[in-house]
Amino acid sequence: MNxxxxxxxxxxxxxxxxxxxxxxxRAARPYQWxxxxxxxxxxxxxxxxxxxxxxxxxxxxxxxxSAIASALYLLNDxxxxxxxxxxxxxxxxxxxxxxxxxxxxxxxxGILLVSGAAAAIFLPMETRWILAGYAAGSILxxxxxxxxxxxxxxxxxxxxxxxxxxxxxxxxIAISPWTLAFSMFMFLSIALAKRYVEVNxxxxxxxxxxxxxxxxxxxxxxxxxxxxxxxxLALYISSPEIRxxxxxxxxxxxxxxxxxxxxxxxxxxxxxxxxxxDPLMFALTDKGSYGTAAAAAIILTAxxxxxx
Length: 308
What we know:
Radius of gyration: 22 Å
Order of helices and strands: HHHHHHHHHHHHH
Number of helices: 13
Shape: globular
Helix content: 55-70%
Distance between the termini: 87 Å
Largest sheet: none
């Protein structure tokens, strides 16, 4: 009898466990946690960065959203496993490719949901309801809403905006109508970019109601909603409320061309077929997006700190 057999089996099991963990982490898509930075927007736009007691609940809200969102990504991939196996790029996902067994994915999904709920315990009740609503909406999207044209992009845009409201609820900072309007149009444009790229590059996909002929309509809707977001920004800059927060609000007019360039670039690349299927991945890896963020930070700082 081979005396080394038990140790070999143990090593193989350990290797398999490490492999499953690695594929599980990949399937949870931690890079998507960047979306959850939106919970900090109320602190930044409301100029509450020096206010006591706002960062702790915001960080807990970020943690709760990250855990719950990752759990829902796993659930979505489990539900879409057969459809993803027929997709040119999604077939490479850990669950669709078979690298991550469904049982392991279910277990990880449960762990992440419990972790998110644990973080949410320390947040206000209203924020817990927002998180629960986000989870329910995401499940509804994965099972039903993604099959309906335009409803699916409205849902995706709403999921972005919900994070802003959750951040305001967690910190007790009121969300202004201007933030609501800007978020609605900007996030809808991003959601439309995601769907446009999928339809334009891969054609109609399983469980979607879109046709290849819909691509120009999605393009027009996406550009239009992006421009509406910039129009809302311009109206906000010219409103009386702006002087309550900024010493030199006229400097903020520079934000309009900066945002125009970013939105225009996103849709130009989308039209060329050079935009990533996931606009978030594009933003995280695009030098132009980092340049836009840096320019916006400089403009906001100047408008806030410069005196007349």
